[in-house]
């Protein structure tokens, strides 16, 4: 399937999920993440869930990161150039939901991409090769292309991998892992 077909398919599948299912599946994903050898790093970038899109509830992962006393980085979107500005999440960070339903920091301490060790990547679908389909604006591909090559990219998905995404572009950045409620996909050994 191509990206547009996959977007439609997985938006429809997500729309059928109830809130308690989302929480249960999100907790399973968080528990699987604990099996990965990523917890000795310092800076972890995480997306804050868009509830109306029925995204994975990342609060469970936030609690893990806070419990391990890690530096947590969140983004603010710039829809003029489809870029992300990254800020340290602290006790004083004020979050506000923007017009697209994305919780974002109002302001804060900027963190350059070069400092980020691990990125938890939102997605709608992914394939057996670690390619992903997002919402189609390219925010994360731009962001990930600026990270160090050793930055670990971890997709989070309620659903299992598709065989192949047909229309992958050279600018698409592949995942190192994708974690679902059922299993961990490891693409890092390609």
UniProtKB/TrEMBL annotation:
It catalyses: (6S)-5-formyl-5,6,7,8-tetrahydrofolate + ATP = (6R)-5,10-methenyltetrahydrofolate + ADP + phosphate. Its EC number is 6.3.3.2. It comes from the Bacteria. Keywords: ATP-binding, Magnesium, Metal-binding, Nucleotide-binding. Pfam families: 5-FTHF_cyc-lig (PF01812). The keyword Glycoprotein does not apply. InterPro entries: FTHF_cligase, FTHF_cligase-like_sf, NagB/RpiA_transferase-like. Its cofactor is Mg(2+). The keyword Metal-binding applies. Belongs to the 5-formyltetrahydrofolate cyclo-ligase family. This is 5-formyltetrahydrofolate cyclo-ligase. It comes from Aquimarina litoralis. The lineage of its organism: Bacteria, Pseudomonadati, Bacteroidota, Flavobacteriia, Flavobacteriales.
């Amino acid at each position: 399937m191509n990206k547009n077909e996959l977007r439609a398919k997985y938006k429809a599948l997500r729309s059928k999920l109830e809130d308690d299912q989302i929480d249960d599946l999100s907790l399973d994903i968080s528990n699987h993440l604990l099996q990965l050898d990523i917890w000795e790093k310092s800076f972890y970038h995480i997306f804050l869930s868009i509830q109306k899109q029925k995204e994975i509830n990342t609060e469970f992962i936030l609690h893990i990161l806070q419990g391990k006393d890690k530096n947590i980085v969140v983004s603010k979107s710039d829809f003029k150039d489809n870029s992300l500005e990254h800020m340290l999440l602290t006790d004083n960070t004020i979050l506000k939901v923007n017009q697209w339903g994305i919780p974002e920091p109002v302001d804060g301490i900027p963190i350059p991409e070069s400092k980020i060790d691990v990125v938890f990547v939102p997605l709608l679908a992914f394939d057996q090769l670690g390619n992903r389909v997002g919402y189609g604006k390219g925010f994360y591909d731009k962001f990930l292309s600026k990270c160090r090559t050793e930055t670990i990219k971890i997709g989070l998905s309620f659903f299992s991998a598709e065989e192949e995404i047909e229309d992958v572009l050279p600018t698409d950045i592949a995942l190192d892992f994708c974690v679902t409620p059922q299993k961990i996909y490891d693409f890092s050994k390609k």
